[in-house]
Amino acid sequence: MKKVLLAAAAVFALATPAALNAAEEVHIPKEEWSFNGLLGTFDRAQVQRGFQVYKEICSACHSLKYVSFRNFETLGYSEGQIKTLAAQYEVEDGPDDAGDMFKRKAKASDPLPHPFANDAAARAANGGALPPDLSLMTKAREGGPDYVYHLLMGYKDAPAGFTVMPGLNYNEVFPGHQIGMAKQISDAVVTYADGAPNDAAHIAKDVTAFLHWAAEPKLEARHSTGLRVLIYALLFAGLAYLLKRRIWKDIPH
Amino acid sequence: MSTEKSIWRKAYEWHEERLPIVHWLDHSLGTKYPVPRNLNYWWNFGSLAMFMLAVMIFSGIFLAMNYTPHVTLAFDSVERIMRDVNFGWLIRYMHSNGASFFFIVVYIHILRGMYYGSYKAPREVLWWIGILIYLAMMATGFLGYVLPWGQMSFWGATVITNLFSAIPGVGKAVVTLLWGGFSVDNPTLNRFFALHYLLPFVIIGLIFLHIWALHVPGANNPLGIDAAPADKIPFFPYYVAKDVFGLGVFVVIYFTVVFWFPNILGDPLNYVKANPLQTPPHIVPEWYYLPFYAILRAIPNKLLGVVAMFGSILIMFVLPWLDTSRVRSANFRPVYRVFFWVFLLNAVTLGWCGSQLAEGLPLILSRIGTFWYFFHLLVILPVLGWVETPKPLPASISQPVMKAAE
Amino acid sequence: MANTAHAHAADAAGETRRDFLLHTTVAMGAVGAGMMVWPLISSMNPAADTLSLSTTEFNISGVAEGQRIIVVWRGKPVFVAHRTPAEIEAARKVDVSELRDPQKDEVRVKKDKDQYLILVGVCTHLGCIPLGIKANDPHGDFGGWFCPCHGSHYDTSGRIRKGPAPLNLEVPEYQFLSDTTVRIG
Question: Second label for B316, Cα 20 to 30 Å away, from A76, B91, B97, C6?
């Protein structure tokens, strides 16, 4: 058994170099998230609030192209609610019989529409900077959801002696500290129907939770399946150990 | 008094007479394959590697059914696998983490061979085939990493294919040939997919040769001495039972990563779609290539860096002759044992250097590490064989085993 | 292999426990392999995005009397025919009992909309697409559709009348959302 543990230790010793480069430059504090842990799940109410934040603030510039209206079912939306939600958006479809593109109300199967017609239009409207798609944002940055949260909360006055280029904004955690996006999240920029606190920290947290749901929609299935698989594997390993010991009982080794 | 044979028995015998597949299996990995009885748990990693290859091939085949090798669709098709395909997230995470675990297992398997001298006579050919398998794995892993068409996929492919541009004279032509164009683009992705699908089956073929070459001299053992027939036990049921237990422990670790830390071994930038016009500030290969990447960058000359990197693997082909000691197991080589752990520590350090920007301390360390890597293989090993006094070897496996049992 | 004999002796002593262990472990291993196969097979079934596209809506008012068009539903052609009174009459006067797949024309169309015939345009023999959409297509011996692959003839209700196909052309699930809008699926 000891040797097996040693083997496991060796496995992690070999694996660490890749993880080591995470800790350079800015230190990003860890936050508490409902989706962390052995059986972490998304806080439905929080993620729904986060969607409201996305809709009212982020979606002016940022697309969420890998999320479709139908996906909101896992957030606790009914089929009717999803239809109503989708119908608030217009998408381009076509060509029709006359060969023209036309606008129609979005359907459940449609992805969330882009705020801009294309990347060039997005750049033109944002001083040359392309607002990235947010579907995978919490997985596409070192630090994950913690990074996204602290980025939203990281707008501070630049320290003395630090020159911020025109059109850019100082941000504590953004690599290089100069970010194109202006500060978006402050106290009471949204009002929640459920009366949840809407100070900047809570809003940032809610929208980050929503973005993590958007990036990793199968997280809950992953955790619950994982636990069952792990229990099974542990039982199997235990039985295999007993069987091995039994079979080897009379072999001196 | 003879009992009537059942119809199944007759059918089995009829078939066996024509194609003795059960007989063959029994001799390959069954009751007719004698194995030294003193193998420790480090000997589990061969069968674990086979298990991981099976996991990779099966998960890969089903991923391929939903993957589209086209520059505009590859990234989206992977996201579709993650979001819409039934259990797609599980299959993909098993595959992407499976690559890392396959390498972890194989690295341990290789290091076990180096510690216990499994590459020495009469197992040189077995060792060679193992190196070929490792090279095929590296190629497969690299090709596979390109397929999701994230930023690291694209820039990894660009950097690695550009290594070949260091070949004097024809370098540029070779790289253009590899790309099928003038940059890493759609033709590159398409052929990488084809080759990524092909190479695992080449690995299967090599594994057959590897096991064949293993059966001729038989397995080495922790004492490194030749095992007498009396010190051998059949592979089935003994080592099958032991391997199954090892597998049980292994899958617990593997599934913990797959289900709870599926992205810990990957680079976040690969969740950003490839952008051929913007190189990320810090390109790193997958962790399993890092030591070699450090060797590449340690040398300030392009051609020499590439030569050193490939040389660091190819030199392993002559390891059986670089090591002049006739004692196999490091257990009886007190000095070599120290150098072995230094060598491993050095490799891990090189790996760390490979993950850092090539400047300052990491660069200095990677130069020292590169020097030590070759110094160990080219100087220490041959000299040690002549100057080291090994501890007395036991006359047989049963001698120390019996002692321990008392 | 002196040890095999040795081990056999040990077997006898612990036989029951070992058998139980052996069988449980092997059974668990088999279950585990099965559990691993299930997601793989399941991944071949339609994915969530495919399933979400399983309805198609179209405007039927543009189909003139006597005209037949094709709409795409789930990647398959759906025939939409606006039948003439003569075609409807031809379909209704057939003796149902003589049909290979007996079905009245009335059950293959919607009440009060019996001029519209909506069919999955896939031959029930081996999946080719029957001809008969355009006026100059062959319509078969019964004025409906004709499958060129193996010569199946369908009538003006899409029922199989001659040739190797075993069943009538399938009528998909559909509904009139309004007088002009039809949703298939």
Answer: B97
